[in-house]
Amino acid sequence: xxxxxxxxxxxxxxxxxxxxxxxxxxxxxxxxxxxxxxxxxxxxxxxxxxxxxxxxxxxxxxxxxxxxxxxxxxxxxxxxxxxxxxxxxxxxxxxxxxxxxxxxxxxxxxxxxxxxxxxxxxxxxxxxxxxxxxxxxxxxxxxxxxxxxxxxxxxxxxxxxxxxxxxxxxxxxxxxxxxxxxxxxxxxxxxxxxxxxxxxxxxxxxxxxxxxxxxxxxxxxxxxxxxxxxxxxxxxxxxxxxxxxxxxxxxxxxxxxxxxxxxxxxxxxxxxxxxxxxxxxxxxxxxxxxxxxxxxxxxxxxxxxxxxxxxxxxxxxxxxxxxxxxxxxxxxxxxxxxxxxxxxxxxxxxxxxxxxxxxxxxxxxxxxxxxxxxxxxxxxxxxxxxxxxxxxxxxxxxxxxxxxxxxxxxxxxxxxxxxxxxxxxxxxxxxxxxxxxxxxxxxxxxxxxxxxxxxxxxxxxxxxxxxxxxxxxxxxxxxxxxxxxxxxxxxxxxxxxxxxxxxxxxxxxxxxxxxxxxxxxxxxxxxxxxxxxxxxxxxxxxxxxxxxxxxxxxxxxxxxxxxxxxxxxxxxxxxxxxxxxxxxxxxxxxxxxxxxxxxxxxxxxxxxxxxxxxxxxxxxxxxxxxxxxxxxxxxxxxxxxxxxxxxxxxxxxxxxxx
Length: 658
Ligand SMILES: Cc1ncc(C[n+]2csc(CCOP(=O)(O)OP(=O)(O)O)c2C)c(N)n1
Ligand SMILES: [Mg+2]
Description:
By secondary structure, the chain is α/β, with parallel strands linked by helices. Helix 1 (5-23) crosses helix 3.
């Protein structure tokens, strides 16, 4: 008997039920409901070669509904991704397995992005589709011509980030992006209608998508819809009406069937209903063979692509970009900029210095793609090298993301994951709260994206406490793998940009000032001092009695306090701390030497104290903020909140007397 699409879909169902049942946790509802649609996608439309999971011109598949991970793991196993053995399927959700609860990028070959927090996947996929268009504009369809496919559920589309993502994709007319909506009308709490009566098809249409509604459990309809999607001149959404736990006999359509809810007895009934007689974790040969054949389908296209790449004059550049290597001369213009600043120190806002650094970098690093969430003029992210990225000519390198911080951050993750581009973007530091969930996924995945976040303290002034970050630096420094840079002047800003670009497995934050600040570095250094994370900027006259630690604009405050103290014969040194995470990576002797052993240690930062103990000790002094800010010119705010050289000097004297 020939193998039918239903037989193949039932293989996904059997594996998903078995794995969730063995783990006694997980989610089989969605894998069962979407098995038919996923089978159509992975056997008819998706361009991939299971033997080469990293082939650059493969289609990207994003399981935005990451809780349905067994759907993806089943597909990877059945199509023959080497790492996804049956032993891994049996070890679903266990320590060290390739089958964690939610798909994790970098952990499991074939997983294109980490998903689980609902809505992130679809927003990340938008970035993948953007990067594909950018690369295609550079290298042409011979080398870059692939699609991005997403499966998203009710939950993903309820999340606010989906709104940002859908409208961005619609505005950019990303025709190679298709979302399969698992329209099963069920979430965890029960029927989706307890919380949702909107019409997703109308919503996508309103965002300029092509939309089609089908029966997602009818494989012929799905196949036709996939072919339809590939003909559209805009992003497409296929609303797949499905039944959760499809195939599970009496439990089919259970409004509480989202998670682990099929036990031995139910599975026996389900398998009997679908005529599945193989033992658990076993795929009948004929069905396994059909799936393997689907996994090899893309082999010929891959080999043809490899032949084209071999002949292409752009081959070396393309391969460099895919590896993520920077151009050899990436930092030549930046070094000249630093030399100029060292020769002629100047005062300015660090956001302006960032703009200057970006002029140098975007000229030398063509894969940098910038943008802003509608704050271009404030963030200084647009350079003369970055034309606007837009339909129909995607060769530009500047994205107008609109007022969509969360969608922007997620899109940047997707761009970096796609590869070939290095995304950076801008907003105000205070709105890191809006994008935090995407920043976190980026940190978890270890992708090189750079978040320019200006207006980094009360120093932004008149916009007042709603816009003034207080706890944000501490909150961002708490996140593993994230590099939080807060440079003090033009040279440090350039150095921080260099460090951020060189750390290819970390996202970075550039916290930058709105207000002018003096040059604190007056001479050329023989190396990138900021790359040490913290360094002694100003020595003490004589034995240091006081060590001052500061970042960003407060470094100048610390230097002024040092002058006051030196006038009184009190030896004072100043340590600039532009990136705590990089300081952590220095050896112990460097760290101890930099912190020093003076009797009085004081930190100065226009944010909360949390974390500064590491430099000043539990009993150290702190000059900063312990409440929200206020609306006034910035110099008045610094005085009112007592973040001044005098206040630092007073505290130092008091501590020396104590
Ligand atoms: C941001 C976020 N909030 C909450 C959850 C917890 N959660 C996981 S799945 C789910 C319901 C999802 O419903 P749907 O997308 O319709 O999936 P289905 O039940 O159809 O499989 C929820 C609330 C999550 N993973 N991410
Ligand atoms: Mg649902």
